[in-house]
Write a structure and sequence with these properties.
The complex is a heterodimer of chains A (483) and B (503).
Chain A: H1 9-13, H2 16-34, H3 39-62, E1 67-69, E2 74-76, H4 78-105, H5 111-128, H6 132-150, H7 157-188, H8 193-202, H9 207-223, H10 232-239, H11 242-248, H12 251-266, H13 273-292, H14 297-317, H15 320-349, H16 364-367, H17 369-383, H18 389-403, H19 407-433, H20 447-465, H21 468-482
Antiparallel strand pairs in A: 1-2
Helix pairs in contact in A: 2-3, 2-5, 3-4, 3-5, 4-5, 4-11, 4-12, 4-15, 4-20, 4-21, 5-6, 5-12, 6-7, 7-9, 7-10, 10-14, 11-15, 12-15, 13-14, 13-19, 14-15, 14-18, 14-19, 15-17, 15-18, 15-20, 15-21, 17-19, 17-20, 18-19, 18-20
Chain B: H1 8-25, H2 30-54, E1 63-71, E2 76-82, H3 84-103, H4 112-131, H5 135-144, H6 146-156, H7 161-190, H8 195-203, H9 210-228, H10 237-244, H11 247-272, H12 274-300, H13 305-324, H14 329-360, H15 376-390, H16 396-411, H17 413-438, H18 455-473, H19 476-502
Helix pairs in contact in B: 1-2, 1-4, 2-3, 2-4, 3-4, 3-11, 3-14, 3-18, 4-5, 4-6, 4-11, 5-7, 6-7, 7-9, 7-10, 9-11, 10-13, 11-12, 11-13, 11-14, 12-13, 12-17, 13-14, 13-16, 13-17, 14-15, 14-16, 14-18, 14-19, 15-17, 15-18, 16-17, 16-18
The chains are: A mainly alpha (483), B mainly alpha (503).
Chain lengths: 483, 503
């Protein structure tokens, strides 16, 4: 490949979703000062929505033009398309949720929607990047956007705390990742994942490579909130605006898992099995045990997300040809149910996020049957009850692990799922079986939120009733990745 | 062959679900909701009658089969089928559900729409459990029964309903995880979830590592079923769930949900693991006997009518387990018959208890006394159902218990003798309760003006009473279909015995 040659037209198609997201984000930034008055939030939100939906369809269009681009820095394959779809769909749902949230919380919109889109650019790029430096840049794009978004409830001190904490610890973690990249370059002489894969397979990997992988795992483990790098999660989730929590617990997570899959399987990273084993077991256990004693719903879901990172990592310990599809399916169904759960939470929280404790949810089943029913679907899916995506997600992960003879890990996982059922049930019990302390009026569901909930519920149920097509697609991507 | 044959099982299973979906879009006019729920449950009942009517009774194997691929990876099929065993359990479910709708007509005031949606969803899941022939599909329906039942208890129950609902949920959930693990192991080795395929693979001895894993797999399934039955000592969720559940919940819980456990033992423990069943039969039968006697003794001292009936269920279900693990034709026929009879008579008893609760808002036996005077019709129905439950000859309870005991006697005389005491116990506690509630003088003034049965209540009770009588005098209608299916289940045991004898 001639490095001097300019990218061809088709290569621009391979980053078309990113281009569209960036354009919409820049349009929001430019229009923000020009628009004023109460209508501006709506207009800017609409631009964001259009951008996200356009990126979604661009991804589907892009799927017909697979291949490398930009001097081998990105590669569009079914794998990247899968994660693009997850990320853009999550972005769409989050923007739909934010629409009403911004009004209620009286937050100046402006760069809010822009940052969501820029964050999505980073996440999309992470899933198609096959070059470590580009992955690092994409990770930073997505992280910096989420750091700022976490602090968007300016009037609440807890939100600023969340933002600062996330920023400081997050930068620290990315430094680990960067150090890992540097060591990997030292060990193999390249930052391209394919080249690294060749180099590591050719001969016995040098000690430096093991160290590099360990450092990268620390950085990425932080991003997906895997134990023991999970300490930040509850505080950050508690303080950040609810729709943003839905965003950052699903979008960046999916993207980082995509990166992990590429590094571990496409680059044939050595010696990770036991590392992953321990991280998975710890995350599941600490996440579930921590969630048992939470009274704040956002904190509860924060611990639950730690636990789910653990379940996902179980599949990383499995063999690649079963493990990769299991991971992909899990991220998709986790995205659907978690972003939906936070949509419900952000609507119910009301002005200033007043109602976020478990007691506030008492009697929600009577006060707002639709919200309660939707949240019930998401929680049942998080438990892993049949007919929901969460069931097949766990199913694929555990059966992949069983096929790799990881019986111990599966037992830990299964016991953990049983523990997990308890605290999710507590929320359902509250909603349907307890009487409210005070009669809190739940405002009617606006159109945007209704659409967001409908998308998430349909996706959750679809993955639970007809998982075949999605899994087939994931299996196909896995085989392309392993080729 | 009938053109309906391949679709009838799906039809029966999903008519209630269609009803539930219709209810979600209906406006909240309680009366309309109830009428629609009743219509759909009756429709499901009549559809389900097709099954026993067109069943080819001598033919071994499953009938009305439908087998279409559902999910390519893992290889899951939408595979349903019925034999003489499952057909009657399906009909029992569809028979009891309309009665549940009728009995809940006035007792549910709040969130009526949700109540009937849950009830119909529960019916679909229950039917699905009995007809699923793909282990995955079975597990799917098995878990799906959990949520509507837990919500019925937790939302519409009495005092400690939340505790009871969560206990019910956690017990079943944790136990079924073991079954899921066993199912996954089988899938990993056989590459299919299909019941018949797995059965053949096991019988031909093709599965590597089965000899070592077999006992564990047997236990995995058994634990899930034993909790559901419930077998002593994992029975403690049942009294709580029953006492707190609304009447319709209790009727379906005792009438059908418990049978999921015994059906599972019959179909999966015996069907897939004959050898392991044989090896484990002794301690299981001992547990069943403990359940029969312990359940009866605890029932005897209950001050609460509903708790008494709940403990009597533990005792009666002990008979079923005893019959199943006797591995005799008589014992299994009897076990099946006890399941059906218990569904009718205990369902009836719970309905009657619920009727009394609607009037007095208590289940305490000491609150009543001399009710025969103000409520003559009610006491007549109560007596009839009580006698059916006790096992009076010519009523439904007798046939099953007699068959089970003769089967158990054949297996080991001591089991038969000990089990037979259970029949005496049940006469003691039920008749004693009857005496305390209905005979003597009216002890509480409020009871003097209790209204007798209304027309709606009579309509709900008559079918149950009539069925108790028909099942008692014409058992062959049922046994005709049950018997061949049971001998199919027992076929591998005959080989097993002859192998042992031959050695």
């Amino acid at each position: 490949m001639n490095p001097a040659a300019l990218p061809q037209g088709v290569e621009y198609i391979r980053i078309l979703p990113e281009i569209l997201l960036t354009l919409a984000g820049m349009a929001i930034m430019l229009l923000d000062p020009l628009l004023d008055g109460p209508g501006s939030r709506k207009t800017l939100g609409a631009i964001g929505l259009v951008g996200a939906i356009a990126a979604f369809f661009a991804t589907i269009f892009q799927a017909h033009y697979p291949g490398p681009g930009f001097w081998g820095m990105i590669n569009v394959d079914s794998f990247s398309v899968f994660f693009h779809i997850v990320v853009t769909a999550v972005t769409t749902v989050v923007i739909l949720t934010s629409y009403e949230y911004m009004e209620v919380q009286q937050i100046r919109a402006g760069e809010y929607y822009g940052l969501i889109l820029f964050g999505a650019v980073g996440m999309c790029l992470m899933s198609s990047a096959v070059e470590l430096v580009l992955i690092f840049i994409a990770l930073e794009i997505s992280s910096i956007a989420t750091y700022i978004l976490a602090g968007f409830r300016r009037r609440a001190a807890i939100s600023s705390e969340s933002s600062i904490k996330y920023f400081l610890l997050g930068s620290f973690a990315t430094a680990f990742f960067l150090y890992g990249i540097a060591l990997m370059f030292g060990a193999t002489g390249s930052t391209s994942i394919t080249a690294i894969g060749h180099a590591l397979q050719m001969r016995q990997p040098p000690v430096l490579a093991y160290l590099a992988i360990a450092l990268m795992l620390v950085g990425l483990g932080f991003k997906v909130a895997a134990a023991p790098f999970h300490i930040w999660t509850p505080d950050v989730y508690e303080g950040a605006p609810a729709p943003i929590v839905g965003f950052m617990s699903t979008g960046p997570k999916a993207a980082v898992f995509a990166v992990l899959l590429r590094i571990l399987f496409e680059a044939h990273a050595p010696g990770t099995l036991w590392l992953i084993w321990v991280i998975a077991a710890l995350s599941m256990t600490l996440g579930n045990v921590g969630a048992l004693v939470q009274d704040n719903v956002k904190r509860l879901l924060a611990y639950s997300s730690i636990a789910h990172a653990g379940y996902l990592l179980v599949a990383f310990a499995a063999l690649p040809d079963n493990g990769i599809p299991a991971v992909m399916f899990y991220t998709a169904s986790y995205a659907a149910m978690n972003v939906g759960a936070f949509a419900v939470i952000s609507h119910f929280a009301s002005a200033g996020e007043r109602y976020v404790t478990l007691e506030d949810y008492a009697g929600l089943g009577r006060r707002s049957p639709i919200l309660a029913a939707a949240l019930t679907v998401f929680l049942l899916s998080l438990i892993g009850i049949p007919v929901t995506g969460g069931f097949f997600a766990k199913f694929y992960v555990f059966s992949a692990a069983l096929q790799a003879h990881l019986v111990g890990l599966v037992i830990i996982g299964v016991v953990n799922s049983a523990i997990g059922a308890y605290y999710y049930l507590r929320v359902i019990v509250m909603m349907y079986m307890k009487e409210p302390r005070e009669e809190v009026m739940v405002s009617p569901i606006p159109f945007g939120l209704g659409a967001a909930l409908a998308i998430s519920v349909i996706a959750t149920i679809y993955l639970g009733v007809l998982p075949g097509r999605v899994l087939e697609f994931a299996t196909k991507s896995a085989s392309e990745l392993l080729r | 062959m009938n053109s309906l044959d391949s679709s009838i099982l799906s039809l029966v299973t999903f008519i209630p679900l269609a009803g539930a979906l219709l209810l979600t879009v209906l406006p909240r006019r309680d009366r309309d909701i109830k009428i629609w729920a009743l219509l759909f449950s009756i429709a499901a009942f009549f559809a389900s009658l097709h099954l026993p009517v067109h069943l080819h009774r001598g033919q071994p194997g499953f009938q009305y089969e439908i087998n279409i691929p559902w999910i390519p990876t893992p290889n899951i099929h939408y595979h349903m089928g019925a034999d003489g065993i499952s057909v009657w359990l399906v009909v029992l479910t569809t028979f009891l559900t309309p009665l549940c709708v009728l009995i809940s007509w006035n007792s549910i005031h709040d969130r009526v729409k949700e109540f009937f949606i849950l009830l119909l969803m529960l019916e679909t899941a229950l039917i699905g459990v009995f007809v699923a022939l793909d282990l995955f599909l079975f597990y799917f329906f098995w878990e799906a029964t959990l949520i509507p039942m837990a919500l019925l208890i937790g939302v519409y129950g009495h005092g400690r309903r939340v505790y009871a609902a969560v206990k019910f949920f956690m017990y079943t959930m944790i136990a079924s995880v073991f079954m899921l693990a066993a199912i996954l192991w089988l899938y990993a080795k056989v590459g299919s979830f299909d019941f018949v395929t797995i059965q053949n693979a096991i019988q031909s001895g093709q599965i590597p590592g089965f000899a070592a894993a077999g006992p564990w797999l047997f236990l995995g399934f058994f634990v899930a079923f034993a909790v559901k039955v419930p077998l002593f000592p994992v029975h403690t969720w049942l009294p709580d769930a029953h006492v707190e559940a609304p009447t319709a919940g209790s009727v379906l819980l005792a009438g059908v949900l418990l049978k999921m456990g015994t059906y599972g033992m019959l179909r999966f423990n015996l069907g897939l693991f004959p050898e392991q069943s044989r090896q484990n039969a002794n301690w299981i039968m001992v547990l069943a006997l403990i359940g029969i006697i312990y359940g009866a003794l605890v029932a005897m001292v209950q001050p609460n009518m509903k708790k008494l009936i709940a403990y009597s269920s533990i005792s009666h279900l002990g008979f079923v387990v005893l019959g199943i693990f006797s591995f005799t034709q008589l014992g299994l026929d009897g076990a099946m018959y006890v399941m059906l009879a218990h569904g009718i008579s205990t369902g009836g008893l719970f309905m009657l208890a619920g009727i009394l609760y609607e009037r007095r808002h208590t289940y305490e036996i000491s609150e009543f006394g001399g009710l025969a005077t103000p409520m003559p019709n009610y006491s007549a129905f109560f007596l009839f159902i009580t006698l059916a439950s006790v096992g009076l000859p010519l009523l439904n309870g007798f046939i099953g218990e007699f068959l089970v005991l003769s089967g158990a006697f054949r297996d080991r005389p001591i089991y038969g003798i000990l089990g037979a005491t259970g029949v005496i116990w049940s006469a003691c506690y039920l008749l004693w309760m009857y005496q305390r509630v209905f005979f003597g003088k009216v002890t509480h003034d409020v009871n003097t003006h209790l209204p007798d049965l209304s027309m709606r209540e009579k309509v709900a009770l008559w079918p149950a009473a009539a069925m108790a009588l028909i099942m008692g005098v014409a058992p062959l209608i049922w046994l005709n279909a049950i018997d061949p299916a049971v001998s199919t289940v027992l076929a591998p045991f005959a080989q097993l015995t002859s192998k042992v004898v031959g050695q």
